[in-house]
């Protein structure tokens, strides 16, 4: 039996409590300062406000003011906050971590390093590790199609865990894998993270088609969506090669699998639909923020565009107009 602390009480962090407790582990769920209403509801024995079901009764839930208590004695720490929230949360967590404690991250996105260069989340975490934690630090990153609503309800799901450390990968897999939550392993950390970040951006392109239909500008867009899907995978392949990732990574769960599920369901698709129907980006952002549903894909387009520009990448014939549509209000 292991002690697992999950940082972030939103969709995915809370959903991961299900396979972990099914395996008999002690799970602590810590909510950020944005999750206090979730923590309060769960502590009252109510259904999780986002997942709309009760979490396993053995899960211990802590509010943001009790971070040190939540991290005490953890055998594995899971970062399940958004990409933009990752560094602020970990900066608070680092003083309470014990050297050698492995970390797993399910955040999907790109961040700007201190030099201004856009890079993966794992690169940013490594850059900001305090000296006391650098020796023996092990990080596992997670990618692949995993809708939290399904995971929490034990609907069969397959994902990919990536780490340069085989023992860390194996540990994380042993802690979380169940008959309904299948886990593949890979050493391709950077390739997986590129897939995870860019699939959110490209899923918005799929949603744009739904918006054009909704606006009555096209009757159906199945052919268009298929073409965009193929182009997106090709461009993700270019990006993965640029970071010297494995060519097989984009055609597996991290890109093909994850883009499929994100393009047919979820907030990224919804963002695209709203923008494609003619709503200006600022209004889309305002409306989704009011519903606490602003997607990772919105930031991923901006950061991904900067990532490609900084590396002088060419041939990204979908990413470029996607940036213009979302950030320069070009007509979809």
What is the count of DSSP helices, taking H or I runs of 4+ residues?
16
| Main beta-sheet annotation | 8 strands, mixed
Strand order, biggest sheet?
3-2-1-4-5-8-9-10
* Rg of Cα set: 19 Å
Topology, please?
Elements: E1 3-7, H1 11-15, H2 17-22, E2 26-30, H3 36-43, E3 60-62, H4 67-71, E4 76-79, H5 83-93, E5 103-105, E6 110-112, E7 118-120, H6 121-128, H7 131-134, E8 139-143, H8 148-151, E9 157-162, H9 166-176, E10 181-186, H10 189-214, H11 222-242, H12 253-264, H13 267-276, H14 281-290, H15 296-310, H16 319-327
Parallel strand pairs: 1-2, 1-4, 2-3, 4-5, 5-8, 9-10
Antiparallel strand pairs: 6-7, 8-9
TL;DR of this structure?
The chain is an alpha/beta fold and 332 residues long. It contains 16 helices and ten strands.
Question: What do these coordinates show?
Answer:
It is built from 16 helices and ten strands. The protein has 332 residues and is of the alpha/beta class. Strand 4, helix 5 (83-93) and strand 5 form a beta-alpha-beta unit. Helix 5 (83-93) runs parallel beside helix 6 (121-128), helix 10 packs parallel to helix 12 and helix 10 packs across helix 13. It is globular and about 55 Å long. The protein starts with a strand and ends in a 5-residue tail after the last helix.
What characteristics describe this protein?
332 residues, 8-stranded mixed beta sheet, two-stranded antiparallel ribbon, 10 strands, 50% helix
């Amino acid at each position: 039996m292991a002690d697992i602390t999950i940082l972030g009480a939103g969709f995915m962090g809370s959903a991961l409590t299900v396979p972990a407790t099914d395996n008999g582990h002690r799970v602590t769920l810590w909510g950020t300062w944005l999750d206090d209403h979730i923590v309060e509801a769960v502590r009252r024995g109510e259904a999780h406000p986002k997942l709309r079901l009760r979490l396993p009764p053995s899960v211990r839930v802590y509010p943001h003011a009790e971070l040190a208590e939540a991290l005490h004695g953890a055998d594995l720490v899971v970062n399940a906050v958004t990409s933009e929230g990752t560094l602020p949360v970990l900066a608070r967590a680092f003083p309470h971590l014990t050297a050698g404690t492995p970390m797993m991250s399910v955040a999907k996105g790109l961040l700007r390093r201190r030099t201004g260069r856009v890079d993966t989340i794992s690169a940013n975490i490594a850059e900001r590790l305090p000296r006391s934690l650098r020796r023996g630090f092990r990080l596992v990153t997670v990618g692949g199609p995993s809708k939290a609503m399904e995971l929490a309800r034990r609907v069969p799901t397959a994902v990919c865990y990536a780490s340069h450390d085989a023992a860390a990968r194996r540990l994380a897999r042993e802690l979380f894998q169940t008959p309904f939550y299948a886990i593949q392993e890979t050493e391709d950390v950077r390739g997986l993270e590129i897939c995870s970040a860019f699939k959110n951006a490209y899923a918005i392109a799929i949603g744009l088609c739904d918006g054009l239909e909704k606006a009555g500008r096209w009757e159906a867009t199945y052919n268009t969506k298929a073409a965009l899907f193929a182009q997106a995978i090709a461009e993700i392949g270019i990006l993965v090669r640029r970071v010297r990732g494995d060519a097989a990574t984009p055609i597996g769960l991290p890109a093909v699998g994850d883009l499929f599920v994100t393009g047919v369901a979820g907030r990224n698709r919804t963002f695209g639909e709203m923008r494609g129907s003619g709503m200006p980006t600022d209004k889309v952002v305002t409306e989704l923020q009011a519903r606490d549903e602003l997607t990772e894909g919105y930031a991923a387009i901006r950061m991904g565009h900067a990532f490609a520009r900084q590396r002088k990448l060419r041939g990204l014939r979908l990413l470029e107009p996607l940036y213009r549509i979302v950030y320069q209000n070009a007509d979809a």
